[in-house]
Amino acid sequence: MEKPLVSQADDDATILAVSHAGAIMSFFSALELDNHPELHFSNCCIFNYSITDSTYDLIKIIDPISGQIYDK
After folding, report:
1. Contact yes or no for 57/50 (Cβ under 8 A)
2. Which residues have a Cβ under 8 Å from the Cβ of 37 and sit 6 or more positions away?
3. Residue percentage of the chain with pLDDT more than 90
4. CA–CA separation, 67 vs 32, rounded Å?
5. Which contacts of 55-63 are long-range, i.e. CB under 8 A and separated by 24 or more positions?
6. Checking DSSP bridges between strand 46-52 and strand 55-63, what pairing results, if any?
7. Which domain of life does the protein's organism represent (predicted)?
8. Average model confidence (pLDDT) for the chain?
9. Phi and psi at residue 65, in whole multiples of 5°?
10. What's this model's pTM, rounded to 2 decimal places?
């Protein structure tokens, strides 16, 4: 079995993953983050996560359609 992309990357690497809103929201929901905004997300949303020791931290969400930006 191959390692996930995140575990193959260098510690300081930037990874861009692109998908449609449904898959992005499924991933977002699976993380079960404690603090996150209650925003409606469009297909063009950009989620910026920091990953440390397999723990995801939501840093920023940008919705270019509505102009909404969430900064932690």
Report:
1. yes
2. 61, 70
3. 0
4. 25
5. 56/31, 57/33, 58/31, 58/33, 61/37, 63/39
6. antiparallel
7. Bacteria
8. 82
9. -70, -50
10. 0.75
Quote the CA–CA distance of 30 and 28 in Å, as a whole number.
6
Using DSSP's 3-state secondary structure scheme, residue 28 falls into helix
> d(Cα 4, Cα 37) in Å, to the nearest integer?
27
Give all strands of the β-sheet with 55-63 in edge-to-edge order.
46-52, 55-63, 68-71
Closest CA to 62 of 45, 50, 49: 45
Cα–Cα dist 41/62, whole Å = 9
